[in-house]
Amino acid sequence: MSSTKASQYTVAKVLHWIAGAFIGFNLMSGWRIATFELNVKEILISIHSGVGIMVFTLMIVRWWWRKKNNLYTPPNWWKRWPIVLQWIFYPLLLVQPVLGFCVALYNDYDVKAFGFIDISSLADSNPVLRALFFDMHTWLAVALIFLVLTHGADRLKTLFT
């Protein structure tokens, strides 16, 4: 492998772990936010939504980097489970923040990503749409947790084989 290709894979790995940390944080933090008082919930949602925007941006950057440098595209890639899993992750990790954005859009309290991007002011509160997007956001989070655990188990398996 050339030095250039090796450095391209290194960048891809760094982006992977940064995105993974943010994704893990948001998947774990989202479950209990609803149980807090409104003033605390607004702060936690601000952090959660800001991290969601960062995940969305990182996934776009990661996809662009992989495509630009022709990474992880071996012949017969569809026969390799880890690569197929990655191709499942990418669209889902782009859809999940969009669903979260839609939840925030129709929320009945302020949602300010990073503390200053007022998402909730972009549309009027709509409990029906909020509930729809919230349910979709929740079910996709469950699917992503399953996929993350599957990905982790697959990677651990390679350590022992």
Give a short summary of the structure.
With 161 residues, this protein is mostly helical.
Question: Which tags fit this structure?
Answer:
161 residues; mainly alpha; Fumarate Reductase Cytochrome B subunit; two-stranded antiparallel sheet; 73% helix; 2% strand; elongated
SSE order in H/E notation?
HHHEEH
Oligomeric state of the chains? Answer: single chain
The assigned structural class equals mainly alpha
Anisotropy-based shape:
elongated
Question: Biggest sheet: strands, sense, closure?
Answer: 2 strands, antiparallel
CATH architecture: Up-down Bundle
Q: Care to describe what's here?
A:
By secondary structure, the protein is an all-alpha fold. It has a single domain, classed as Fumarate Reductase Cytochrome B subunit, CATH 1.20.950. 73% of the residues lie in helices and 2% in strands. It has four helices and two strands; from the N terminus they run αααββα. The protein has a two-stranded antiparallel sheet. Helix 1 runs antiparallel to helix 2 and helix 2 runs antiparallel to helix 3. The longest helix has 33 residues.
